[in-house]
Amino acid sequence: MDQPDRSMQAPTDAWGEVLSALRTIASGGACALLIVTFVFQVARVDGLSMEPTLKDQDRLIVNRLTYRWGDPRPDDIVILYYPRDPTMLFVKRVIAGEGDVVRSEDGTVFVNDVRMRDDYVREEFRSHDDWGPEVVQEGYYLVMGDHRNGSSDSRDWGQVPKRYILGRVSARWWPLWSVRLF
User: Fold this and answer.
1) Beta bridge partner(s), residue 174
2) Confidence class of residue 24 from pLDDT cuts 50, 70 and 90?
3) pLDDT digit string (tens) for 111-130?
4) Catalytic site residue 92?
5) Who's near 169: CB < 8 A, 6+ residues apart?
6) Which position among 20, 27, 92, 154 bears the catalytic label?
């Protein structure tokens, strides 16, 4: 009885293994792309407007799903499209939402006549401006940087529509010695 020539089958099996590995890599890449596109995004802080909470060149993880089912809340740190140039992304803190009445007296922010807790703002970063009262429009948010006297924010460019808010900052992952969940 003749034995089949197995040397001819080996390359077919090898090609099958290569194709299987390529399919696995492609499906993993597609899953990663979907997660990065719709669930999480990595962002980098560029500037000092959120000091001391976030520093220049910090790396962040942004949860893009949070606001698909809910609304931004005061004190959330968010990534948003810059209203004057939506090709740019900014990181800011939500101060007030739709219907809230906001004002500032000597740099102290009041939302609905209640002083806002802002112990994250260092005294040397506090602005001493007066503005408002301002009513936040329906579907909009007022955002500010934590470095109040060095931040371009809603005080300069107005309220931000919800559709411009990409997601909530969930974590700082770089530098490693300052990893933090928000």
Assistant:
1) 59
2) confident
3) 999 999 999 999 999 998 99
4) yes
5) 43, 54, 60, 61, 62, 63, 76, 77, 78, 79, 91, 182
6) 92
